Amino acid sequence: MSGSNATASKGVAGMVLAALIGVPLVVYLLIKLFTSGMSTNLTSSTMTSEAVSARLQPVGVVKVVEGGAPGSRTGKGVFESVCISCHGAGLAGSPKFGDAGAWGARIAQGFDTLTKHALGGFNAMPAKGGAADLTDDEVKRAVAYMANAGGAKFTEPPVAGAAAGGAVDPNTKGKEIYGSTCVACHGSGAAGAPKFGDKAAWAPRLKDGVDAAIAIGVKGLNAMPPKGGYAGSDEEFKAAALYMINSSK
Ligand code: HEC
Ligand code: HEC
Questions:
Q1: pLDDT for the residue 93
Q2: Rounded to the nearest whole angstrom, what is the distance from the C-alpha of residue 105 to the centroid of ligand 1?
Q3: Ligand 1 atom nearest 92 alpha carbon
Q4: What is the pLDDT of residue 165?
Q5: Which candidate, 169, 174, 164, 173, places its Cα nearest to that of 77?
Q6: What sections of the protein cross the membrane (predicted)?
């Protein structure tokens, strides 16, 4: 009796062992079969030059440019809506954004040559990156933005009438926001607010620089609510703060 029991349990143990080794083996072989099929596909059909250029096609015909009114788009805005489609990853041999090694020799040609190539096209680089509605200045801004990220120190051509571009003009919009919001406290110096035009009240607040004072204003400080309770953008708040700060200089 005890002998046949031992044989039976050996048989069960054998089956368990076979399942433990056999099942994963089959799964492994199946996976290998499928993935090798996939990699064959990849090399044979999807990597041909036709297939690659078909994938590159759409980026060359970009039409929609986001990031502001025509003419007033910043280098960053143009890059992020147009140039990024190639330069973001370095497609088609384009110098990749932020890659100082890829940009070094190109930057050495100077801003004018880079700009000429970006405007008129250069080998696989389409004229204006394929976005014909960009103004020349917008393309120049994008060139400066990309080149600077690759180590250059070019100046982006300024956006005419900065108010339209993104930077908000302290003397118009800033003044307006001051008049509708900030004046409630800063007009009279209520609740300990530095008073408009009061040089002595503003001086200690500006000792770490204008940007630092504005950053504190964005966060709020004691009786000063975040952004002074203003609901608009940080840029607009900044313009209002600059309007006040300029008046106290
Ligand atoms: C369809 C892809 C594509 C798009 C979109 C694109 N570029 Fe390019 N760009 C290239 C390629 C490719 C090169 C490299 C050309 C070469 O050196 O042969 C290049 C090179 C450049 C260069 C260096 C030229 C030189 O003299 O070395 C600048 C500057 C440039 N691009 C600016 C831009 C700007 C600005 C935009 C957006 C407005 C843009 N590119 C959009 C593909 C693109
Ligand atoms: C409810 C009253 C109130 C309103 C409204 C208000 N502020 Fe203030 N603000 C203050 C007070 C109070 C302080 C000083 C806080 C302190 O030092 O304790 C201050 C300080 C500041 C500072 C200086 C921060 C620093 O570094 O010391 C800036 C900048 C500023 N406000 C900008 C603005 C702007 C811009 C607006 C309008 C968009 C605005 N404030 C609206 C009360 C106000």
A1: 95
A2: 14
A3: 12
A4: 43
A5: 164
A6: 12-31
Residues 6 or more apart in contact with residue 182 via CB below 8 angstroms: 196, 228, 230, 240, 241, 244
Q: Which of 173, 186, 234, 248 to mutate to test the pocket of ligand 2 (most atoms within 8 A of CB)?
A: 186
Which of 202, 224, 235, 243 to mutate for ligand 2's pocket (most ligand atoms within 8 Å of CB)? 224
Predicted TM-score (pTM) of this structure: 0.47
If one counts every other C-beta atom within 10 angstroms of the C-beta of residue 164, the result is 14
Q: Which residue's CA is the closest to the ligand 2 atom numbered 37?
A: 182
Long-range Cβ contacts of 67-73 (<8 Å, 24+ apart)? 68/164, 68/165, 68/166, 69/164, 70/133, 70/135, 71/135, 71/137, 71/138, 71/160, 72/159, 72/160, 72/161, 72/164, 72/165, 72/166, 73/134, 73/138, 73/141, 73/159, 73/165
Dist CA 82 CA 183 (whole Å):
42
